[in-house]
Amino acid sequence: MTGQSTVLLVGHPNVGKSALFNRLAGANITESNYPGTTVDYTESELHLDGDPARLVDVPGTFSLDPKDRAEAVAVEFLDSNPEAVTVCVLDATRIERGLNLVLEVLERGHPAVVALNMWDEAREKGVEVDVDALSSLLGVPVVPTVATEGVGVDDLRAEVASARATSAEAIRERLPMAPETTGDAPAAASTRDEPAAAPTDEDLLTPAARWDLVDAIVEECVTYHDTEPSLSELLGRLTVAPKTGLPFAVAVLYGMWSFFSAVAGFFTDGYFVPLFDDLWLPWLQDVFPMEGSWLYFLIVGDPAATNSFEAFGILTSGLFVAIGVVLPAILALYLLLAVLEDSGYVARLAVLLDTVFHRIGLHGFAIVPMVLSFGCNVPGVAATRTLETDKQRFMTMTLLSVFIPCGAQLGVMLSLIPQYTGYILLYLLAGFFVFGAILNRLVPGSLPAVAIDIPPMRQPRLENVATKLWLRLRAFVTTAVPFVLFGVAVVNVLYLGGAIEWLANALRPVLSGWFGVPGETVPALVAGFMRKDLAVAQLSAVSMTPFQTIMSVVMVSIYFPCVATFAMLLKEGRESGGALKVLGGALATLVAALFLWGGLLRLIGIALGVA
Amino acid sequence: MRRDDVYFGALGLAVALAGVVAVLRGVGIGITDPHAIAPLVTVAGTFLVWRGIILVLAGWLFLTGATDGLDDRENQATVVMASLMLWIVAGADLLSRLLGAIPGGPDIWIAGPTEVVAALGPPYGPALLAAPFALVALKYRHSDGDEP
What we know:
The complex is a heterodimer. By secondary structure, chain A is of the alpha/beta class. Chain A has 27 helices and 8 strands. Chain B contains 5 helices and no strands. The longest helix of chain B has 29 residues, at 73-101.
C-alpha cells in the first residue's frame, strides 16, 4: 500500500454499495437490484478535502465469517487494511441486521462511518431512526443517504474524515439500559472508545451477545410505525407465490421473447440485411482487387455470394454477423436484463424457482448466473462466485456453459431459423435440468440451506439502465466483435490449408452416423470454439433438411464453450476445487451431453419420421 | 358485491374465453377465426398457444380477484397483476406491428406515416382489445381507490 488512505464500502448484499460508490467516486460500475452484483472488488479515487483516497467497493457480506467466495473477498479486504476507513452501508429498512455487521466491524477496531441507505424507503415503511442518538451510541458518524438519488452523499463524504474507531464495550457503556453481559461475552474488552490495537478472538462478542447489543441499540434509536403495504410490495409478494407468480413469470418470459424478436428483427431484417446484401457486399465484391486470391477469399469470401451470411469473408459475413445480427439482439436482450435486474424481478424469479432448482442440487439464486448467461456466458460463469459450495459452483458453471445459449447465439438463431428457435431453447433448458439432476447425484458435496434477501420492487432508473446497457454493449463491441472477425479468419485459413476438408472426412462417420448431419458442419464446429453465434451463422451456408438444421444448432450449442467462456471456466475453476478438476468435469459433461442429449434428439426425430 | 367485482369478473371471463379460443386455434383445432364474424378482432399470428395460455391465466387471476372481493388490497393487487399480464401481451403485439411497419420494405428506408398507421389498424388480437378495459385497475395504485 502507498501512503494514500483507503476507504472501504462494506455492507450486506444489495444495500446500495455500488450505487454509493458511483456517487462518491463519479464512477460507472454496474448496480443491480439483487444480491451479489459485486462479486469482486472495484476501486476508484475519492477526493477528501482535496486529498485523494482509494475508494473500494467490496462484495456484499452478511457477516465477517465468510460463507462464500464473494464474502471472503470482503473479509480479506478488511483484514489486510486495518487502518482503512470503513463506510458501513446499511439498509435503513432492515437496520437490525446491518447494525450487527457494524458491530463486527467496530469490534475489529476499524475506524468507521455508518451510511443509513434507502432512507426514503425506510420512512415510507414507517421506520424512524433517531440519527443523532444512533451516532452518539455507536460513537461514530451516522449519515442518512439515498444513494440512487445522490441524497446525503456530500454529507457522507464530509464525515469520512471524522471516522472513528470504538468498541462494543464502549457502546454498551453508553446505553442507558445495557443488556446483561452473558457469560460468553468478551472477558477483556476495552472500555475506551479506542479498542485494543489488535483484537483477538477473545475480544469479539459472541453472536448472541452481539444480537443483544443490537436489540438494545434499536430499542433506543428506532421506532416502527404501522403502515399499509404499498401496491409494489403487494405485487412483490404475489410474484413469489407460486399460484400468482408462475402465471406472471410466463407472461414476463413471453414479453421478453417478443420484445427480443421484434427489436432484433427490426434492426436486422429491416435495415442491416438490405444494407449488407444490397449495398455493402456488391460494393466490396466490385472494389476489392485480386479476385480468386487467398486474400480475397479471406477478406471478402465467395465472389459469387449474393448474401452476407453465405459469403464468409472477414468483412462480409464477419462484419454482418457481429454488427448486423448480434449487436441488435444483444442490445434488446441487455436492455431487458437491465430492466428486470433493477426492478427486483430477477431475485423474485429466483425465489419462485427455488423448489425446481433444489431438485438439481442448486438453490433459486442459480437463476441469476443463468439469466446473465442468456446475455453472455462469461459474466454468468463469474456470477457463480456467490454460490456457497464448490459443488454448486461447478454444477452451475458447467450447466451454463453447456446448455445456455448466449444472446449473440440466440440472435443468429432467431435470424436464421426463427420457427425452430423456441423449440431448440426448450430442448436445451430441458437438458440443463436433466443433466443437473444427474450431476447432482454424481458430484459429491453439500447443498446448504441459505436465506437470501428479496429486494424491494423498484422502478428501474433510466440513468442506471442506460449506464449498464452502455457498459455491456461496449464490452461486447471491444471483446466479442474482434473474436467474430478472428473466427472467420481462422476458419478461412483452415479451409485454404485443407484442414477443414480433412476434419470433415475424419468426423463424417460420427456426424452422419450418430447425429445424422452432413460432414459440412465441421467448419461451424471449428468456428464455434471462437464464437457460437458465428458457428450458427455458418450453418446457414450448409444445405440441410429442417431437422438437420435443428440438430446441428443443438450440437453447436452443447458442444465446446466459446474461447472466452473457456478462459473464464479456467479462472473460476482455480477457485472452485481446481482448474483441472472443474475443466475436466465440464468437458466430460459436455461430451456426455453432446452424445446423449444430441443422440436423443435424433432418436426423437427418427420416431417422428423427420430425421 | 362491489361494482368493480362485477366489472373485473366480466373482464376476466371474456379474457379467459379469448385465451381458450387462442389455445385451441394454436394447437390446430378447427375453430373459425372470430375475424369472420367480427371484423375488428382476430385470433391468429405467431406464438398463438403462448398468448392464449397467458390470456387464460390472466382471465383466471381477474376472476380470482373479483370473486374473493376487491375491497381487499391483496385481491386488488391480483387484478393489477392480471392487467400487467394483459398489457405485456398487448404491448408486445403493438410493438411487433410498429417495428414491422417502420422499415417499409425494399428500397424504402422508413415507411410513410400512412403505412405505419395502417399497420396499427384493425383487426386486433383479444389482448389489445381488452387492454384498455384493464386500465381501470390503475385506480388500485393507492389504497383509497374508489369504485368505478
